[in-house]
Amino acid sequence: MPPYEKSMEIMPFKQRKCLATRKDEVCNIRSKFPNKLPVIVERYLQEKKLPLLDKTKFLVPNELILGQFLSLLRSKIALEASQALYLLISGRNMSCLSTSMGEVYSQFRDPDGFLYITYASQDMFG
């Protein structure tokens, strides 16, 4: 495992940056891209089968459907059709895949302004 991947696994985004820095980042993003949502996508901590994404920050349009975002993530991870991928919103919630990202963001965004999504395979439930 490359050292970058191991360090990413140990330290989630919230632990790598302080609250003030994260809030400033969101303010800058929202001022430059008012129609986009700042989303952080990270792998579930105990997940061992799925690879890490090459980036964790995404700018997502308000109108994008959660199911479309899931498809985007599946292609970035390069999963086969038979492999399962589940999304946890804010670390504990699952949402309907027909919900828009704007609705998900307004309901589950963190106080720092980012929407945190964790991805995992089905083993997280067992």
SSE order and pairing:
Elements: H1 3-10, H2 13-16, H3 19-32, E1 36-43, E2 57-61, H4 66-77, E3 86-89, H5 101-108, E4 115-120
Parallel strand pairs: 1-4
Antiparallel strand pairs: 1-2, 3-4
Main location: cytoplasm
Membrane topology: Lipid-anchor
Subcellular location: Cytoplasmic vesicle, Autophagosome; Endomembrane system
In short:
With 126 residues, this protein is an alpha+beta fold. The protein is built from 5 helices and 4 strands. The chain has a single domain (3-125), classed as Ubiquitin-like (UB roll) (Roll), CATH 3.10.20.90.
Any overview of this molecule?
A lipid is attached at residue 126 (Phosphatidylserine amidated glycine). It is found in: Cytoplasmic vesicle, Autophagosome; Endomembrane system. The chain has 126 residues and is α+β, with helices and mostly antiparallel strands. It has a single domain (3-125), classed as Phosphatidylinositol 3-kinase Catalytic Subunit, Chain A, domain 1 (Ubiquitin-like (UB roll)). It is 37% helix and 18% strand. The protein has helices at residues 3-10, 13-16, 19-32, 66-77, 101-108, and strands at 36-43, 57-61, 86-89, 115-120. The protein has a four-stranded mixed beta sheet. The chain is globular.
Order of helices and strands: HHHEEHEHE
CATH superfamily: Phosphatidylinositol 3-kinase Catalytic Subunit, Chain A, domain 1
- Cross-sheet strand order for the largest sheet: 2-1-4-3
The CATH C-level name is Alpha Beta
Number of domains: 1
Question: Tally the helices: what do you get?
Answer: 5
Q: Structural class given helices, strands, pairing?
A: alpha+beta
Helix content: 25-40%
Rg over CA atoms, rounded to whole Å, is: 14 Å
User: Would you tell me which CATH topology applies?
Assistant: Ubiquitin-like (UB roll)
> What's the main sheet like?
4 strands, mixed
Strand content: 15-25%
pLDDT < 50 runs, ≥5 residues: 1-8
End-to-end gap: 25 Å
Protein name: Microtubule-associated proteins 1A/1B light chain 3C
Lipidation (Phosphatidylserine amidated glycine): 126
Family: Belongs to the ATG8 family.
Membrane topology: Lipid-anchor
